[in-house]
Each structure stands twice: as C-alpha cells, then as structure tokens.
TrEMBL record:
Name under which the protein is recorded: Protein transport protein sec22
InterPro entries from the UniProt entry: Sec22, V_SNARE_CC
GO cellular component, one term: endomembrane system
Topology in membrane: Single-pass type IV membrane protein
Keywords (A to Z) from UniProt: Coiled coil, Membrane, Protein transport, Transmembrane, Transmembrane helix, Transport
Residue spans crossing the bilayer: 101-119
Entry keyword annotation includes DNA damage: no
Length: 122
C-alpha cells in the first residue's frame, strides 16, 4: 500500500509505474536469494511456534472461563445450601429448647395456675 496513491494519480501509460517496478525488482531479488529463503523458512517455523503458543493460550483462557463459570455455579449452590442449613439449624435449636425446657415450663405453669385459682377463689 506504499504506492497506492501514485498508482491512482498517474495515467495508464508505459513506464508509469517505474518507482513501483524498482520496488518489485528489489523484492524479487530478496526472495530469490537462498539465504533469504532459509531465513524465511526459519521465520515461518517461528511463526508456527508462536501460532501454537497463542492457540494453547486461547484454549487455556477458554478452559479457565469454563472453570470460572462452573465455580460460580457451584458457589451459588453452596450459598443456597448454606442458607437452608442455617434455617434448619435454627429450627433444630428451637426444637431442642422445647424438649429441654418444655416439660419443666409446663409443670411450673400448671403450678402457677393452681396457686392462682386456689388463692383467687378460696
């Protein structure tokens, strides 16, 4: 895209792209050089390695995202179960208190009612 503006502005006549032709000749020489081809091969290998690393990183990120979603779901379930456990524990404590103090409280209440009736009516 370095020569795009020159191509659009010039008319279509022979040798209108002389600057572009020199660029193309230089590029052709670079790619014809055997050392450059070897360098390009190494560069392609490096690019493949980078691509593999980036693919692995993306897979790891997706796996982490899936794990985070799963952990979020599990934490929501745990919170709901802990609320249920708290409510059940509160009810069990009340039931235990009734069992422990219910009979003595009923006996004391009956005694007070008997004393009240006895002094009130006699």
């Amino acid at each position: 895209m370095s020569y795009g503006s020159e191509i659009e502005n010039q008319s279509l006549r022979p040798y209108a792209f002389v600057k572009f032709d020199t660029f193309m000749q230089k590029t052709k020489r670079v790619y014809e050089d055997s050392r450059t081809i070897n360098s390009l091969g190494k560069l392609n290998e490096n690019l493949l390695d980078v691509t593999k690393i980036m693919t692995k990183n993306m897979e790891d990120l997706l796996w982490r995202g899936d794990s985070l979603d799963r952990m979020s779901t599990l934490s929501d379930q745990l919170r709901d179960q802990s609320k249920k456990y708290r409510k059940d524990a509160k009810n069990l404590n009340i039931m235990a208190m009734y069992r422990k103090y219910g009979i003595p409280a009923a006996i004391v209440l009956v005694i007070f009612i008997i004393i009240y009736i006895r002094f009130r009516f006699f």
